[in-house]
Amino acid sequence: MYTMAAIRVQPCAKIIDVFDIHNTLNGKSENYYEIVVKTGLFLWYFGYWNGGKIRIECKKRSKRVVYPLRIPCLSLAEKRLFDTMVKGGNQHPCFCPYRIFFVTLRGFSGRCPKTKTINSKSMANILAIVGRPNVGKSTLFNRLTKTRRAIVMDTAGTTRDRQYGKCEWCGKEFSVIDTGGWVVNSDDTFESEINRQVNLAIKEADVVLLVVDVNEGVTQFDMEVAHLLRQARKETILAVNKVDQFDQQYGAPEFYKLGLGEPYILSAENGLGTGDLLDEICSRFKNDSNGESLEDLPRFAIVGRPNAGKSSILNAFIGEERTIVTDIPGTTRDSIYTRYNKFGKDFYLVDTAGIRKKAKVNEDLEYYSVVRSIRAIENSDVCILMIDATRGIEAQDLNIYSLIQKNKKGLVVCINKWDLIESKTNTDIKAYERAIRERIAPFTDFPIIFTSALTKQRIYKVMETALHVYENKQRKVPTAQLNEKFLPLIENYPPPATKGKYIKIKYCTQLPNTQVPTFVFFANLPQYVKEPYRRFLENKLREWWDFHGTPVQIFIRAK
Questions:
Q1: pLDDT, position 63
Q2: All structural domains of the chain
């Protein structure tokens, strides 16, 4: 039996929204209540589950941070528990066995408020692009999102997984989903998986765009997709693509027989008709919300050799079949961006195509996949390097690591398929770690996690470690603390004299707004400071402050 306590905040606070979200986790049904409170420039989010878990967040200037609260009405034990929760922030939901907390504001005294039910799905508008193979869906996706994220080739079946992007038109922003071509009774091994991905995209979308080819007319596959959309009862727009010449537009009326209304002619290749099509798409959306900006979210790229378990661990993370998984190397072709926003954590996971040796890449399709994987590394904050435990670390793993190091990204090494290893003693684990660190030296300050995507062994530790590495990458050290630590050390262990000249370092500081933690040491003769001494300074820096998993730059400059 729970009793009620009150959390009192400023009297000028105002309740602006209350949510009651019904959810089912691990077969257990529970309600999650969130009360949004506005106090001046702040938005407070008081969230609790009927099971007793509590979450408090504060939003200011589009950034969520956690601030402490004064709670005068709780016992000492409850205050300690609550303080632990507040300091842990939204990444460590705390289970409270004592009471369910309510917010007391302007006459709202401890009673459960009236709530409204909302969907847990994002309120942003979503457009799904569907159709049979090789009608120009990926070309249109690239044009709408103004990117080259999707691979475009004349080969049918190039796209397999769902690809997400953002489109903006006349001040209105919406999400776009690119899908593989719908086909049945074909020789494609991935037919059923691609069709399942198409069904998921249709189910998720608010508006569906059916793309057809004006040159080939109405085909049996077009009729099947149109029938599928009628059964789904979704807002559907028909787009007749590949109208590259003026005379080709007269073939568009043939598609009235699909029963989906007026066809819009366009050419995804040169942009003809895309303006009218976007006007129609925006008019079909019932929700005027543009969604939230997600540009500042951390990005964790999952990289490695083919068949190392990258897609499997992504599916294990999010708890659904987000990407296609098979034993065939090269199953994933595009770089798939997936948002993870569970348990108070919010970031992007990027599934990439396997990177093989350059000499073994013969097909153009694989070359474009590798290019996109490299681009995903460049755009990420932390890279999760997947290594097959049954094969160990190989030369190609070192090549991928060199890409990560060259782009100055955080690193988490994940040894996958650990369930296939028979001997798992502590001695074997330490020997495995030592072998990896020796191959990757001199940078050895990075985490190594032994996981299994199949059995989900330690997979959530991978996410927690990646978030910790991201925090280390953003770490700022005050200049006073740096000089307090380093100046006595440098005085006792100065750089070696060169040509009879003594080097004196008088001051050090951390540079602001850098990609990785960057420190500058000011000396009288910076050109004589050698690499071993820089490494000595870096080791001391890592010893005194936590920069585990992230690269550190050290520069020696003239005073």
A1: 41
A2: 3-117 (no CATH), 126-284 (3.40.50.300), 299-473 (3.40.50.300), 479-558 (3.30.300.20)
pLDDT for 45 equals 57
Q: Rounded to whole angstroms, how far apart are CA atoms 15 and 44?
A: 9
CA atoms of 299 and 470, how far apart (whole Å)? 9
Q: What is the pLDDT of residues 74-120, one digit of tens each?
A: 444 444 444 544 444 433 333 333 222 333 222 323 333 332 322 33
Amino acid residing at 166: K
Residue 548: pLDDT over 70: yes
CA 130 to chain centroid: 24
The rounded distance, in Å, linking the Cα atoms of 175 and 41 is 29
H or E stretch at 197: helix 191-204
What lies within 8 Å, CB to CB, of 184 at 6+ separation is 191, 195, 221, 224
Which residues touch 129 (CB under 8 Å, ≥6 apart)?
137, 140, 141, 176, 177, 178, 179, 209, 211
Q: How far apart are CA 302 and CA 465, in angstroms?
A: 14
Q: Considering the entire predicted model, what is its pTM?
A: 0.67
